[in-house]
Amino acid sequence: MVEWYLFLPQVRLPVADIVDRAQHAEAAGFDGIAFIDHLEAPGQSDENIWEAMSIADWVAARTQRLRVGHLVLCDAFRHPAVLAKQAVTLSAASEGRFDLGLGSGSWPAEFTKFQVGQQDPVARVEQLGRHLELITQYWAGGQQPTPTHSIPLLLGGSGPRLMKLVARYADWWNLQANHLDRLPRLADAAGSARISVQQMVGFVRADADSNAVREVSTRRFGHLGPGLVCGDATELTAHFAGLAAQRVERFYVWFADFAAPKSLVEFGETVIRNFPNAVS
Fold this sequence. Notes:
This protein has helices at residues 15-28, 52-61, 80-93, 108-114, 121-142, 160-169, 183-186, 210-221, 233-244, 261-270; strands at residues 3-7, 32-35, 67-70, 73-74, 100-103, 153-156, 172-175, 194-203, 228-231, 248-255. The chain is an alpha/beta fold.
């Protein structure tokens, strides 16, 4: 049994286009959608990027079944008491469709620019640990209201200190695309947390030129190494089946064509539906 999430960085796209892609993903059989959390687009400071919790709220209100979340919210951007209440509110409003994804931060340049967070990565992970403890206390009765639905906690990252937090707190552990080659070595450190991976996909649709798709995808995202896979439906089905055999239970699919609606529809029909728990 695996789950399928669309990973859709809310960069460049108008809000209406993000909603449109979310609705196409829902109709195509995806289980959820995940956004990023940055104060500026990483490496593209002149590009528009929408605020992470607000865009999740908006998409949740305009979908029926799709779960919403993030890969991942930056712990430094929100006080844990505020984040805990935001999570409870969105979970209740969406009737239990919110996943809380958290990490210690991956773009220190924005910490300096916006005077938030710490440069020291060890200190950031230590702070995340303190905040996780507080959030669990708030949900257990330290704040009102308490959650009316289960709020799955996902932690993203792969450092040894972070993995200790995964084993202690997380329902899910996500491995980012540019570290997929580390999955066999890290999986056991996740403890009882279920495993998800972020995977960039150059999807060769039936109407596409295979060489062109592979060339464009590699030019845009080849720096991800094994985090990028290109292929048609048959090749991608085999690829994801291989990851599922390594205990991966959720895929965050990141499309090299920025989740063109035609790709979402065909991916659902030709890849997702090859797996036994696919939404019909």
